[in-house]
Amino acid sequence: MAVAALPRTMDALSRRAAMLRDSLRRSQGNTDGMVAILGSFDHRLSALEAAMRPTQVRTHAIRTAHENIDKTIKAADGILSQFDLARRAEATILRGPHEDLEGYLEAVDVLKGIVRFFSSNKNFKSSETILNHVNNLLAKSTLKIEEEFKQLMSTYSKPIEPDRLFDCLPKSLRPTKGDNEADGGSHPSKGLETAIYRTPTLVPPRVLPLMNDIAQQLVQAGNQQSCYKIYRDSRASALEVSLRKLGVEKLSKDDVQKMQWEALEAKIGNWIHFMRIAVKLLLAGERKICDQIFDGVNFNSGHCFAELTANSVITLFSFGDAVAKSKRSPEKLFVLLDMYEVMRELQPEIDEIFEGKPCTEMREAAASLTKRLAQTAQETFTDFEEAVEKDASKTIVQDGTVHPLTSYVINYVKFLFDYQSTLKLLFQEFDNSTEAESQLAAVTTRIMQALQNNLDGKSKQYKDPALTYLFLMNNIHYMVRSVRRSEAKDILGDDWIQRHRRIVQQNANQYKRVAWAKILQTLSVQGAGSTGDLSSSGVSRATIKERFKSFNMQFEELHAKQSQWIVPDQELRESLRLAVAEVLLPAYRSFIKRFGNLVENNKNPQKYVRYSPEAVDQLLGQFFEGQQWAEQKR
């Protein structure tokens, strides 16, 4: 059955293939027809395009012509406007800058714009002629601007009177009426760091923008050197004269060395005051206007500022340098510390004012002066310590009171503690490894020990041993009392105070032993015999009489001598009298009570018992009063 059906299937497939071939032939015919139609359209369009091309060319030419005409008209208008601008600017330039400086500078800018315009339009046949004319005008304007800059700098570079500067100071530093100088050198200067200083107006603010514009014009015209010289010379002169009017003068080491101390001290006080005015007011003001006038200008303002301030800074620093290099002496220490302190105070401002590489020399000069003052102050410390220990003055205080050297050294140490913060900074300049407070304590201890060593030597000059001990007692007590009442107490410590109080007591005990041992021996019972012996022995009675006479004589000698001696401290004086009375009066009362009856029946008993115990006590109250008692007695 499968074989019988195969022919039918083949016939069906053949019919379908025939139908497909017929369909393809019809599609090919349609395609060929469409191609022919489209080819006809292409031919027609090409013909139309060829017909329109001449019209398109004429239209483009007309449009281009119009565009060129517009451009030419615009270029002509631009050129004519430049000619008009040049004519008006020329009139302004020829009039000069005196009447209207701002208008003049605007005219210069207009001329520069014209130069730029024609420089970029050199195909205009007259461009070179107009460029030459405008450049000649600019050259004339530069000379006139330079002259105007010179005139302005001269007008507004006047020295500042001292009164104007004083008005810019904090009230605490302004001079009072009748004073020539403000109190700038007195110590301490605490709180000055926060005081308000008002920078003076060196140039009116309204003029600064004009000066800036002129500087810009001069630099752009290639006249940097003229601008530099005019500004430097004008401002340098004003600054130097301002300082001279204030009282600043250049002094050498020899000048300083020849001065009397009072004159030098006054000049140092003034210098400290002048330094603050110079740095905080004048130099700060100069830096400010220099930065404003040359703001945005391609100009080496740092070098210019360094040069205009150089002479003034050298003059200011020369005095400090001369003092630091002059012969050292103890009284100079405190003014050296004042000078060092003000340099430390001003150093940050000096660094800010003289910032930048061109001003390196100024910053280094200030730092060097600060270091030199610190070095001299430290060396003066060492000198003072040695001078105290080696002081060989032959002056003997006859009354055993506090020696002038003691009061001088103690006052010196007290003053030092007014400078604690400054001293700590000074010590750190040379030794960062040790705490500043420890260094201050070590220095103070050495000075006090040097004084004590010297006093020990001076005490040996007395022939009377009792006065030796009284002298040491007075002087060491003065040291202890002064330390206890000052800031030195915190530095030297309680141990130092307690140790030296014991030394005071030891000397008081030694005085009492040496001065009163002999008279107490006279009142001693030993060797005077017993009461029974005395009643039966004329020799023993005679011995007692001699004892009374001896007591009277010794006490009168002691009174005559020791009422001239001085114990200046009232508490110590009363304490010492009490200590003497506590040993003398009981012994005297006991002696009178025991042996007084042996002389009472004599013809002249007051010859022997000349003083009652109460009278002795009263006379002891006159001891250690010095000249006061002597004058009362006279």
Automatic annotation (TrEMBL):
Listed Pfam families: Exo70_C (PF03081), Exo70_N (PF20669)
Segments traversing the membrane: none
Keyword check for Transport: yes
Record's protein name: Exocyst subunit Exo70 family protein
InterPro entries, per the entry: Cullin_repeat-like_dom_sf (IPR016159), Exo70 (IPR004140), Exo70_C (IPR046364)
Family recorded in the similarity comment: Belongs to the EXO70 family.
Biological role stated in the UniProt entry: Component of the exocyst complex.
Exocyst complex subunit Exo70 C-terminal domain boundaries: 270-621
